[in-house]
Amino acid sequence: MLARDQRTPFSEWWWTVDKLLLAAIIALMLAGIILSLAASPPVATRIGLDPFHFFSRHVMFLLPSFMVLIAVSFMSPKAIRRSALLVFVVSIVLIVATLAFGPEVKGSRRWITMLGVNIQASESAKPAFVVMAAWLFAESTKRPEMPATSMAIVLLLMVVSLLVMEPDFGQTMLLLMVWGALFFIGGMRMIWVAGLAGAAGAGLFGAYLLVPHVAGRIKRFMNPASGDTFQVDTAMEAFWNGGWFGLGPGEGIAKRSLPDSHTDFVFAVAAEEFGIILCLALVALFAFVVIRTLLRAYRSEDMFSRFAASGLAILFGVQAAINMAVNLQLIPAKGMTLPFISYGGSSIVSLAYGVGMMLALTRLRPRTEVESMNDATTARSYA
C-alpha cells in the first residue's frame, strides 16, 4: 500500500484522484470489450473479414487509450490548457485536410488516412474545443474587460462551420449543446441562452430544407412508412426479444442483420443478449460518471477547472444519451458512438483523452495550490 506521506508523482496521483470515478470508467471499458466480442463477429463475417477482426482492433485501440487516460490524469490544469490548445490546432488542420483530400463516403468527408490509419479529426477536436471554450468563459468571469465571450463565439462558429462543411450535423449539434451549457453555467443572461437555442433550431430547420439526408432521417422518424427504417426497427425488436434478462451471450438475432451492430447499435445487441438489466446498469454507469464529475467540479475553487470538468462531463453524457436514444427510437437516427462501448479507434482515443482531463481536473488539490493559480492569473492581468 502507498503511504500518504510519500512524495512521488504516482503516490500524489493515487491519493488525489477520484477512485470511484476511475472505477466506473474502467467498468465501461470492460463492458465495451465484452459487448464488442458479442456484437462484432457477425459484421466482420458478412464483409469477408476474420470473425474477430473488429474485436481484436477494439482491444488494440483500448490499451493505448487507457495509457493516454492515465497519463493525462496526471496533468495540472495549466498543462491541460496547453495540451488542449495543441490538440485543437492539430485537429483543425486535420479537418481542413480532410475536407481537401479525404475520400467522400455517402456524401460526407469525415476521414483521412495517415500512415495507414483512418483518422476522424472531429473526434479529437471535441474535448479540446470544450476545454478551450471553458478557459475563455472562466476568463470572462475573472476579467470582464477581456472579450473572452466574443472569442468563445468566434471559436464556436469556426468549429461549427468546418463540421457543417463535412457535413456532420450530429457532432455539430453535440458541440452546440455543450457550448450552450457552458454559456449558461458561466452565468450568462437567459436572453442569450434563448437566442442560442433559437439559432440552433433555425440551423436545424435550414439543414432540413437544404440537406436531403437530414430531411430523410427526420421524415423517417416522424413517419416510418416514408422510407427505410430497417436498422432502428431491428434495434427495437432486439429490446423486445431480450426482455429483462436477455437471450444469453452469443444468442442474439439482431446482430446477424444489423450493419452497424458493433458501432451505432451495440446498445441494442446488449439488450438482446444480456437483457434490459444490463442496459440499465450501463445507463447507471454513464449517469454516475457525469453526476460525480459535476459534483466534484462544483466544489472546485478554480473557475477553469470547474467549467472544463463540467463541459467534458456534459459532452460525455450527451453523446451517450444520443446513442441510446437512437437505439430506442426516441430521436432520428444519427451515427454517434456509445463511449467506450462502440467500436471506433479515433473515438476511443479521443474519449480517453477527454476522460483523462476530467480525472485530472477533479483531483483533490490543496487550497493553497488553487489560490496560487488564481493569484498568478490575477498578477498577469495587471502586469
Characterize the structure shown.
The chain is mostly helical and 383 residues long. Strand 1 (112-114) and strand 2 form a beta hairpin. 72% of the residues lie in helices and 2% in strands. It has 14 helices and 2 strands. Its main location: membrane. It comes from Bradyrhizobium lablabi. GO terms for molecular function: lipid-linked peptidoglycan transporter activity; peptidoglycan glycosyltransferase activity.
Tag the structure with descriptive keywords.
single chain; 383 residues; mainly alpha; two-stranded antiparallel sheet; 2% strand; glycosyltransferase; lipid-linked peptidoglycan transporter activity; FtsW/RodA
Q: Helix coverage percent of residues?
A: over 70%
Strands side by side in the biggest sheet? 1-2
Overall strand count: 2
User: How is the biggest beta sheet arranged?
Assistant: 2 strands, antiparallel
User: Mean of residue pLDDT?
Assistant: 85
Radius of gyration: 21 Å
Which parts are unreliable, with pLDDT below 50 for 5 consecutive residues or more? 368-372, 375-383
Query: How many domains?
Result: 1
Return the string of H and E elements: HHHHEEHHHHHHHHHH
Helix count? 14
Sheet/helix structural class:
mainly alpha
So what's the overall shape? globular
Distance between the termini: 46 Å
Estimate the strand proportion.
under 5%
